[in-house]
């Protein structure tokens, strides 16, 4: 992909891949490729979620440490 992958785009693509596999519309010739791509997308989404969680926790800690809040 030339443009930066977003969580939403990765999630949408994962849903599409899952639907294709569930509906058995993926040929055997490309099944391994689809599963590999899904694995990459899952890892991307997990990393994105972990990074977001850490950032939110950091913001909360900063807010708790501010005097007067």
TrEMBL record:
One of its GO terms (molecular function) is exodeoxyribonuclease VII activity. Residues 4-66 form a coiled coil. Pfam families: Exonuc_VII_S. It comes from the Bacteria. InterPro entries: Exonuc_VII_S (IPR003761), Exonuc_VII_ssu_sf (IPR037004). Keywords: Coiled coil, Cytoplasm, Exonuclease, Hydrolase, Nuclease. Its EC number is 3.1.11.6. Belongs to the XseB family. NCBIfam families: xseB (TIGR01280). This is Exodeoxyribonuclease VII small subunit.
């Amino acid at each position: 992909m030339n443009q930066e992958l977003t969580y939403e785009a990765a999630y949408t693509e994962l849903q599409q891949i899952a639907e294709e596999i569930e509906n058995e519309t993926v040929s055997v010739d490309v099944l391994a490729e689809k599963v590999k791509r899904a694995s990459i997308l899952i890892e991307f989404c997990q990393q994105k979620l972990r990074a977001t969680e850490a950032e939110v926790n950091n913001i909360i800690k900063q807010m708790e440490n501010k005097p007067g809040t």
